[in-house]
Design brief:
The chain is an all-alpha fold and about 325 residues long. The protein has two domains: about 45 residues, no CATH class; about 240 residues, Orthogonal Bundle (MetI-like fold). The chain is built from 14 helices and no strands. α13 packs antiparallel against α14. The protein is globular, with a radius of gyration of 27 Å. The N terminus is likely disordered.
C-alpha cells in the first residue's frame, strides 16, 4: 500500500527550503552591515565614559593642574571622612523619600478622582501633564525663586495678610529642603497621576462588583482590592521617581544652590561643584560612583522587598 504524505507536511513552510528562505538568509548580512556599526558606536559611547570615569577615581586629576597621577584608593579613603558628602547623602535620601511619598499620595488621589469622572477625562489629563512639560530650571525659578521669595513672593504676601507672618522659605535651613520638595512635587506629581490612572483603568471590574454585592465599604474595597491589585504599577512608578530624585540637581541649583550652607546640597550637586567648579575630577568621579553604588543598593533592596507583593497581585 502506497504511503500517503500529510498535506500539512507537503505544504512548504515560508523561510524553510523556499525562495523566501534564501532571501531572508541573503538579507541577514546586509542588515548586519547597517546595524552592527550603530551597535558598536552605542556600546563605545556607553563603555568608554564608564571606564574612564572609573579610572579617574584612582587618580588625582585636577583641571587646574596638568596631568594626572595614580593614587590608588586615596579618593575612596577621603570619601569615608568627608562630612560634606555624608550631609549630601542625608539630604538626598530625605528629599527622595519626602518627594516620592507626597507625589504618590497626591497622584493616587487625583487618579481616583478623575477615574470617577464620566466626561472630561482627556481635559484633566492634559491639564495635569502641563507641569511635566516645563523645564526643571524654569520650574525652579518660577515656583522656587518667585513664588517662595521671602520679600516679594505672593505666598508670603498672603501669609502677611492673614497675619501669620512671613516664612523664610529659602534662607532657613529647615524650610529650604521643603521648598525644593514642593517645587518637585508640583512638577512631577503628574507623572505619578498618569501611571496610576492607567493602572486603575486596567483593573478588572468583576472583583469590585463582587465586593459591592457582599456589602464591602469603599475603604475596604480601596485597601483590600485597589491597592493590592495596583501594586505592580505602584512599584514601577515609585522606583522611577525615586531614582530620578536621587539625581536631583536642577531645582536645587536654581532655588538654593545647595544652601543655606549645605542644608540642601545633594550628591549630584556636590559632584557638579567638585568637578566643574573646583576642577577636582578625580574626587568628583569618586563621589559619582558612590552615588551609583548607593542607588544600586537601594534598587536591589526595594525590588527585593516589593517582589512578593507584586507576585501576589498577579
Amino acid at each position: 500500500m502506497a504511503r500517503q504524505t500529510s498535506p500539512m507536511l507537503a505544504t512548504p513552510v515560508p523561510g524553510i527550503g523556499t525562495a523566501a528562505g534564501h532571501r531572508v538568509a541573503r538579507t541577514k548580512p546586509v542588515a548586519g552591515f547597517f546595524v552592527n556599526p550603530a551597535a558598536i558606536v552605542v556600546v563605545l559611547l556607553s563603555i568608554f565614559p564608564f571606564v574612564l570615569s572609573l579610572a579617574m577615581t584612582f587618580s588625582n586629576w585636577n583641571l587646574l593642574y596638568t596631568g594626572a597621577q595614580f593614587i590608588g584608593l586615596d579618593n575612596w579613603q577621603r570619601l569615608l571622612g568627608d562630612a560634606t558628602f555624608r550631609r549630601s547623602v542625608t539630604n538626598t535620601l530625605w528629599m527622595t523619600a519626602a518627594g516620592t511619598v507626597i507625589q504618590y499620595a497626591i497622584g493616587l488621589g487625583l487618579a481616583l478622582s478623575v477615574l470617577r469622572i464620566r466626561r472630561g477625562q482627556r481635559f484633566f489629563r492634559l491639564v495635569f501633564l502641563l507641569p511635566m512639560m516645563i523645564s526643571p530650571a524654569a520650574v525652579g525659578y518660577i515656583i522656587g525663586r518667585m513664588q517662595f521669595s521671602e520679600t516679594q513672593g505672593p505666598i508670603n504676601d498672603i501669609l502677611r495678610h492673614l497675619e501669620l507672618g512671613a516664612v523664610p522659605w529659602i534662607s532657613n535651613p529647615a524650610m529650604a529642603p521643603w521648598t525644593i520638595v514642593i517645587a518637585d512635587v508640583w512638577q512631577w506629581t503628574s507623572f505619578m497621576f498618569v501611571l496610576l490612572l492607567a493602572g486603575l483603568q486596567s483593573l478588572p471590574e468583576e472583583p469590585f462588583e463582587a465586593a459591592q454585592v457582599d456589602g464591602a465599604s469603599s475603604w475596604q474595597i480601596f485597601v483590600q482590592l485597589t491597592l493590592p491589585m495596583l501594586m505592580p504599577v505602584t512599584v514601577t512608578a515609585v522606583l522611577i521617581r525615586s531614582l530620578e530624585l536621587f539625581k536631583l540637581i536642577d531645582l536645587v541649583r536654581v532655588i538654593t544652590a545647595g544652601g543655606p550652607g549645605t542644608a540642601t546640597q545633594t550628591v549630584t550637586l556636590y559632584v557638579y561643584d567638585l568637578a566643574l567648579n573646583r576642577g577636582d575630577m578625580g574626587y568628583g568621579a569618586t563621589v559619582a560612583y558612590a552615588l551609583l553604588i548607593l542607588v544600586t543598593i537601594y534598587a536591589l533592596i526595594y525590588l527585593g522587598v516589593t517582589r512578593r507583593s507584586v507576585e501576589n497581585a498577579r
